[in-house]
Amino acid sequence: MAARPSWGLPHETAALIIAELAANAALHGRVPGRNFRLTLTVTGPTLRIEVRDARVERLPTVRPAPEPDAPRECGHGLLLVEELADRWGVVPELIGKTVWAEVGT
């Protein structure tokens, strides 16, 4: 398999963040007949990841980490995003919201 160029960007970190934000949009931001949109923007050394979905009434928040003796299979995604991204946030819009994260090189 040939190596793919990364253009100096943190592609493995970005892939994890993209997967989490896209999964959240598909699971929690779904509105029948509407999809989500993924946008990647590079400005200087910063990669900005944006995932826009159609639901505004459920804004994402980071939940406290569960106790070690009470493992769960879900609910840890935004903890991962918070740990991997340099910055992240949510922008409510008239219809929907955009969840964004930025990572630098």
- Helix content range of the residues, please? 10-25%
* Overall tally of structural domains: 1
Kindly state the number of beta strands.
4
CATH class: Alpha Beta
User: H/E element string?
Assistant: HEEHEE
How far is the N terminus from the C terminus? 25 Å
The radius of gyration over CA amounts to 15 Å
Q: Could you please say which CATH topology applies here?
A: Heat Shock Protein 90
Q: Globular, elongated, flat, extended or rod-shaped: what is the shape?
A: globular
**Second CATH tier, the architecture:** 2-Layer Sandwich
Number of helices: 2
What value does the average pLDDT take?
82
Q: What composes the largest sheet?
A: 4 strands, antiparallel
In short:
By secondary structure, the chain is an alpha+beta fold. It has helices at 11-28, 77-84; strands at 37-43, 46-53, 87-92, 97-104. It has a single domain, classed as Histidine kinase-like ATPase, C-terminal domain (Heat Shock Protein 90, 2-Layer Sandwich).
